[in-house]
Amino acid sequence: MAISLNEKYLKKFLSDSEVDKIWPQVEAAHKTIYEKSGYGNDFLGWVDLPFNYDKEEYERVKAAAKRIRSNSKAVVVIGIGGSYLGARAAIEYIKSPFHNELDKESPDIYFAGNSISPAYLNGIIKLCDGKDLTVITVSKSGTTVEPGIAFRAFRKILNEKYGEAEAKKRIYCVTDKCRGALKKFADEQGFETFVIPDDVGGRYSMFTPGGLLPIAVAGVDIDELMRGAKDAAERYSKCDKDNACYRYAALRNILYRKGRSVEMLVGYEPALLQTAEWFKQLYGESEGKDQKGIFPASAIFSTDLHSLGQYIQDGSKIMFETVLNVENGGDDYYIEKVCGDFDGLNYLADRGMSEVNRKAYEGTVLAHTAGNTPNIIINVPGMSAYDYGCLIYFFEKAAGISGYMLGVNPFDQPGVESYKKNMFALLGKKGFEDMREKLEKELGE
Residues of 399-416 as b/e, b for ≥16 C-beta within 10 angstroms? Predict the structure, then answer.
């Protein structure tokens, strides 16, 4: 089964004629992607990646994952950004948010290098204490501060625990093919390396070794993940109005032009939490440019209905919701009748929680659309590796189409560099002396 759209709850907010009117822009975006022109180096390698990935490299990924699973009780994945977030999201969705506690056949997997918090880093170090450890670091350059600090810390731990010779066998680097500080250092030290292709940007790189190696270590069938991505790439390659991916890009742009500048990605499965974080990077970095773009936000219902529900229902009408409706969430839990019915819930007796969750979803969609908040429903068949591969490619392709429709390059992120330069200057990095003096005056130091 495929990813599909339910547009029933959009009828009061937009019409088919509006889709017809905007469709030439969809066609232009499609043409730009497949001609790979118009915006310079657009990192468009992800388009064909499910078909044209390096087969030899892919087999090395599977061999390395098997080796890591056999000799490690803990794995630290170090990185920041797309493939790192993608790996974490895939593991939680396909395996479970409780993967480390429930899967006794796989090593515990911890994610580091995504912050500069000493409390967080020290916590992971303590969790790994006494366990056979492997480190996977993902970075094209090797000079980004957050993952760089974490890599230094865990390389030291490995060297002290195993000695330098054995430690080198427990460090895997996913990086540039031939450039960058990490690639140079890895080659000097003899670490095994894998490549993030030059024409694939970070947030589009889940189907490269940066995402696939940690996902495979967790015990996910990456053949099925890639099969889902491949089928999605074929399904969403034609520019017609039956293409659910292109329709999604069109619908969100129509709503944006009607003043809906915030997209709330909603899921009713807690296992979607990290997927939402990946989604926010994908769309935030791809579209937020030139004073344009839909702001990506997220919520997990029903949990967040008790905090954000009031605003969505009755607050400022600046948003629309994109609801991920997982049609088969796995094993059900059936509610039992309780003597005395002290909590008044016996009317739910002998019913599955999946039914209750679905009625919460249906009731919320009706309430929010009645409250003048548009809802786009994306139906996801299940929680398998295949389903997830389809979903990720769906969102990646839609991000490319939607960005071009907005008139921005969806494959660069120039604004991300601003905070880095300020941070480097304030920390006293060589070459930023003049900037440091200026910034310190602004801070009043």
Answer: bbbbbbbbebbbbbbeee
Q: Give the β-pairing of 262-267 and 319-326.
A: parallel
pLDDT tens readout for residues 300-358:
999 999 999 999 999 999 999 999 999 999 999 999 999 999 999 999 999 999 999 99
The tens digit of pLDDT for each residue in 104-152 reads: 999 999 999 999 999 999 999 999 999 999 999 999 888 888 999 999 9
Tokens of 175: 């990086």
Contacts of 154 (CB under 8 A, 6+ apart): 76, 78, 112, 125, 133, 135
Q: What's the confidence (pLDDT) of residue 41?
A: 54
Strand 319-326 and strand 375-380: the pairing is parallel
Helices 16-35 + 385-406 axis angle, to 10:
100
Q: Where are the domains of the chain?
A: 4-36+227-406, 46-220
AA letter at 302? S
Domain 4-36+227-406 has CATH 3.40.30.10: no
Catalytic residue numbers read 285, 306, 420
CA-to-CA dists, residue 380 to 44, 165, 277, 327, 392, angstroms: 25, 46, 18, 6, 11
